[in-house]
Design goal:
There is one protein chain. The chain is α/β, with parallel strands linked by helices. It contains eleven helices and 15 strands. The strands form three sheets. A six-stranded antiparallel beta sheet has the order 2-1-4-5-6-7, covered by helices on one side. It has a six-stranded mixed beta sheet with strand order 8-12-13-3-14-15, with helices on both faces. A three-stranded antiparallel beta sheet has the order 9-10-11. Helix 3 packs across helix 5 and helix 4 packs across helix 5. The longest helix is centred in the middle third of the chain and has 36 residues. The radius of gyration is 23 Å and the shape is globular. The two termini are 38 Å apart.
Length: 372
């Protein structure tokens, strides 16, 4: 699956335009404020139906414009599909595929998305919830048919927590938790098994990618479930044993919704002991490991959206990064201040931006002046 074109209208500082993308590496370059990151965000939003940078969709609407729209054309063999996301000040967000409302069934019609942005470092150094959500999205990309298992667990957890609230208010009996313990146990064991298998798939490629990209020492990714339960009955029993404390706190305090995906190097937590540069490499290594696992499983390679990824990599690491992108048989968009941010030997499609507009490639003297 490849994105052939991206069209934007009223999107942040980007002028109305249609950008042509090529397979493998696409370099979006230009001075600060040119709109490079906005191109990545627009492409993500067209495909996923939401921003990768903000929870407020209306922030993507350019000043003075009534709406923002991003449209991506995805090719799979001879088939073409149009993914469009529009955000209106009056009507909110609308996500469509070929003119019809997008739904879960459309997930398999687009490439998986792997995003590196400086803000995404929260995935490495932030709380476990971000890493759990990321792991679940990777599981969905690897096994789309298993997505319902995660939803089943989320529904059961919400129902159990709601019942806990009613019990605390004296509106329901404690015995009513029994069936929800059983449901949460069944869905939870299934979810843990999927997460554990996914983490195992990326463990070796994560270590390799981390070493190649400069994370010295042994790097590892570990799935750490809150429960050791191997079957539904055991997890349900664990929930029942903790019922008193759950009623005291007002919510379910045990189960896969509290699991951790730990990133470590030299037996230390990357989130606590890694430098900013090491955390950046850790995030990159995680994305490449997932890329390799998807390709190995016969899934389409993910679309790599890499914002300002080369700024803290030395020339050798940049070369290794580009070699990995070329070898991955997938498509990538990379933003950088100059075209020299990538090795000259790397084949690429260049999109030069200035003031939100795609332009003919700048001469080197102009680039140096703009970057200064």
């Amino acid at each position: 699956m490849l994105v052939e074109r991206l069209g934007v209208l009223g999107f942040r500082n980007l002028a109305e335009a249609e950008l042509v993308l090529e397979p493998q590496v696409n370099l979006v370059w230009g001075p600060n404020g040119a709109g490079k990151t906005n191109v990545l965000e627009a492409l993500y939003m067209a495909l996923a139906g939401r921003s990768c940078r903000t929870a407020s969709d209306r922030e993507t609407i350019a000043f003075g414009e009534p709406l923002a729209r991003a449209e991506a054309v995805v090719a799979s063999g001879a088939e073409r599909r149009s993914f469009q996301c529009a955000v209106s000040r009056a009507d909110g967000r609308r996500h469509q595929v070929d003119g019809a409302a997008a739904g879960p069934e459309h997930l398999m019609l687009r490439p998986a998305l792997a995003v590196f942005m400086p803000d995404r470092l929260v995935l490495v150094k932030g709380p476990p919830a971000a890493r759990r959500a990321h792991l679940d999205r990777f599981c969905a990309a690897l096994w789309p048919a298993r997505v319902e298992g995660r939803r089943r667990y989320a529904r059961a957890l919400a129902q159990r927590n709601a019942l806990i609230g009613r019990i605390r208010a004296g509106e329901a009996a404690e015995a009513g938790l029994d069936p929800w313990d059983a449901e949460l146990g069944a869905a939870g064991v299934e979810l843990m098994a999927v997460r554990a298998e996914a983490a195992e798939r990326i463990a070796a490629p994560f270590a390799t990618a981390a070493a190649e990209l400069g994370l010295t020492g042994d790097a590892e990714v570990q799935y750490r479930p809150r429960s050791e339960a191997g079957d539904a009955a055991v997890l349900a029993r664990e929930l029942a044993e903790r019922r008193e404390s759950d009623l005291a706190r007002g919510y379910t305090g045990h189960g896969p919704h509290l699991d951790e995906l730990a990133l470590r190097f030299n037996c230390r937590a990357l989130r606590r002991y890694g430098s900013q540069g090491q955390q950046r490499v850790g995030l990159l290594a995680l994305l490449f490991a997932e890329h390799e696992a998807l390709v190995a499983d016969g899934r389409p390679p993910p679309l790599m959206l890499l914002d300002d990824v080369t700024s803290e990599l030395d020339p050798e690491r940049r070369r290794l990064l580009c070699e990995r992108l070329e070898a991955g048989r997938g498509q990538a968009l990379i933003t950088a201040a100059t075209r020299e941010s990538l090795p000259a030997s790397t084949p690429r499609n260049e999109i030069a931006l200035r003031d939100g507009r795609p332009i003919a490639p700048l001469a080197k003297s102009e680039t140096d002046t703009a970057a200064a």
